[in-house]
Design brief:
about 55% helix, alpha+beta, 2 domains
């Protein structure tokens, strides 16, 4: 597999290994894995990033080098790095402030194995009792011809280069958002296509969630409900959408909550009924509106969810109970239609300002 960043990987390997660079690349399962995980480097901010698994590799290799094992042969006797230190270091890295522990604990090993099914090697070794971790040194040593070389330092350089590319892309994205926001309504001819381009299948999941939130917040913000304890004592209150956590966080929470109606919203990239029903079970089968990053029609999406539910549960009453909790399904065409209505209601600026605000928060962007 080759992509734009592959050339950068080979350039870094050439700096470390000279004319052996291609041979090192071809012989290393870990370098092949990094090549797969860095394919979004030159695709801009809207493509999915892979910081969690890359940073799990990074902090372990960094610890390996910091302890001098790149030049020593006794790593097998090392007591291992503390989980708390590795986890803290992950969160100190760019875009890593909200990373969770999944990559270090299992996800990286599972994905590495998926990409290397015939390789009899675990990438991360750990002792659950002592909470100590090691990188598999055998994966860091690559045999090229008659020579065995260590790729540890090159791994750090490759991940640094990837992070630098993504950082530049995100800063450019924030700058574009800010520029569009400053154009205000008179720049609608430029800003409307820009926002619409962020509601696509190929955009980064976090960007999609942020833009979905901005559009829905502006859409519902133009509506009000009347409520009160008696018919003679009613209060008008606008609908307000709130984000409840980080985007795409796998934190077990619900993405958006609406007041005062108490509606729940969940953003998803998949049409996996198991995930939908898990979300529903989390909130004790409270109805949820699912915002799906899909071009499929709403009818097709609902039919797919029901078909999976019938396959999974078989009992009609159980299926119906879960389906009743799918309050609404919002797909990409619906989001674009809502955005069009928001623009016609002169709420474009609200959408742009919200995208800027949420993007800076999500990407830990700091003013320079």
């Amino acid at each position: 597999m080759t992509h734009e960043f592959t050339a950068q990987i080979l350039k870094i390997l050439a700096e470390h290994f000279g004319d052996k660079a291609q041979g090192v690349f071809d012989a290393s399962p870990l370098l092949q894995y990094l090549n797969v995980k860095t394919k979004s480097a030159n695709r801009g901010s809207k493509s999915r990033s892979s910081f969690a698994n890359l940073y799990a590799v990074y902090v372990l290799v960094e610890d390996y080098l910091a302890k001098g094992y790149g030049k020593r042969a006794d790593y097998k006797d090392y007591e291992g790095a503390k989980f708390t230190a590795l986890f803290k270091r992950q969160r100190e890295l760019p875009f890593g402030q909200k990373l969770q522990n999944h990559a270090l604990n299992s996800r990286l090993n599972e994905e590495f194995k998926k990409h290397n099914p015939t390789l009899d090697a675990i990438l991360i070794l750990r002792d659950l009792q002592t909470e100590r971790y090691w990188i598999n040194e055998n994966v860091l040593r690559v045999k090229v011809g008659q020579e065995t070389v260590s790729i540890a330092a090159a791994i750090i350089a490759i991940i640094d280069a990837y992070v630098g590319a993504k950082k530049d892309a995100f800063q450019s994205f924030i700058a574009d958002c800010e520029r569009m926001a400053k154009l205000k309504q008179e720049g609608a001819k430029e800003t409307i296509p820009f926002v619409a381009s962020l509601v696509k299948r190929n955009v980064d999941a976090r960007v999609f969630e942020i833009v979905s939130f901005a559009i829905l917040r502006a859409h519902y913000g133009a509506k009000s409900v009347f409520w009160g304890w008696t018919r003679d004592d009613l209060t008008e209150e606008p609908l307000v959408l709130y984000k409840t956590g980080r985007t795409n966080a796998n934190d077990g929470g619900i993405d958006f909550v609406m007041r005062p109606l108490g509606r729940f919203f969940q953003v998803t990239e998949t049409v996996d009924a198991g995930k939908y029903f898990l979300d529903i079970d989390k909130v004790q089968r409270f109805p949820i509106t699912f915002i799906v990053k899909s071009e499929q029609t709403v009818e097709a999406l609902k039919a797919s969810i029901r078909a999976q539910a019938q396959s999974r549960y078989s009992v009609t009453k159980v299926v119906d109970r879960y389906m009743a909790c799918v309050e609404e399904v919002v797909n990409i065409p619906m989001l674009l239609a809502l955005f069009d209505a928001v623009v016609k209601a002169d709420k474009l600026q609200d959408v742009l300002d919200e995208i800027v605000r949420q993007s800076k928060l999500e990407f830990n962007y700091e003013e320079t």
